[in-house]
Amino acid sequence: MRSSAAMRPTPFLSAFQTRLLSDTTRQAIEKAVGSAPVVLFMKGTPETPQCGFSRASIQILGLQGVDPSKFAAFNVLEDDELRSGIKEFSDWPTIPQLYLEKEFVGGCDILVSMHQDGSLAKMLEEKKVLAPEGAESDSK
Amino acid sequence: MAESTITEASLKSALIERLNATHVEVTDMSGGCGQSFTTLIVSPQFAGLNSLKRHRTVNAALKAEIAAIHAWSAKCQTPEEWEKDKAKNGGASAKPSLNGTVDGKVEGVEA
Q1: pLDDT of A22-50, one tens digit each?
Q2: Does position B80 have pLDDT exceeding 70, yes or no?
Q3: How far is A96 from chain B (nearest CA, A)?
Q4: I need a labelling partner for B95 at 20 to 30 A (CA). Which of A32, A49, B15, B55 fits?
Q5: Which residue of B has its CA nearest to A59?
Q6: Closest chain A CA to residue B72
Q7: Which of B75, B71, B95 is nearest to A53 (CA)?
């Protein structure tokens, strides 16, 4: 009895978690996570980020040359349920959050360090989500 | 919910106690309201863990605290990595990250 009780979360906690993340929210988030190979949950939009950490993350994805057709961004400020639900879904307390092929990569700190040590470039290359060479820029 | 206010000192002592951190630097990046912190955490518990798992370890240890503040940033090193970094930088310790801030202050909120 004692050990099985210790293995489970307290009734309050499990009830609380269920209330936080309803089936409909979970399904909506799963759909969002799978909507593109590269998905960023952020504050604001890629054009006008509303937070420095979201801005830094979007800039990094741009510098890496992620193919816009393989990228989707979701603005958590437009949807309170998404804003709290994504934290629960990812078990991650902050925004932004990056997903690559439905797998959670990390937040801004992790993106920055992976950008600096080259592991992000390698990962994006392997997943074939970068824009074709020479096609990524329209500023010429 | 934590009953006391979260400060640089309270975060530091929590990290030392809960993660056996051997070196902690906490910087308030809120510009005064005490709601945004960036940290450098050196702990032997990070050994063998990738970056994501290190952050998850810290997030779990400070679940209530991180939920209560607006912004949170962490740099996680093992004692060996920290020493190596220090030697490389001529004896200067790595600093908490200020990525995503403007002159060391957050604009907007991450949490």
Answers
A1: 888 999 999 999 999 999 999 999 999 99
A2: yes
A3: 7
A4: A49
A5: B100
A6: A94
A7: B71
CA B12 vs CA A4, B38, B39, B41: distances in Å: 34, 11, 9, 9
Model-level pTM? 0.84
What distance in Å separates the CA atoms of residue A68 and residue B5, rounded to the nearest whole number? 43
Hey, which residues 91-110 in chain B have their CB within 8 Å of chain A?
97, 99-102, 106-110
Tokens read off for A80: 């309170």
Q: Find the angle CA(A56)-CA(B62)-CA(A9) to the nearest 5 degrees.
A: 120
ipTM value: 0.85
pLDDT band with cut points at 50, 70 and 90 for residue A1? very low
| pLDDT of the residue at A4 | 45
CB contact under 8 A, B110 and A110: no
The CA dihedral of A60, A65, A67, A68, to the nearest 10 degrees, is 50
- The interface residues of chain A toward chain B in range 106-125, judged by CB-CB distance below 8 A, are 106-110, 112-114
The string of pLDDT tens digits covering residues B19-50 is 999 999 999 998 767 689 999 999 999 999 99
Cα–Cα–Cα angle for B72, B31, A91, nearest 5°? 10
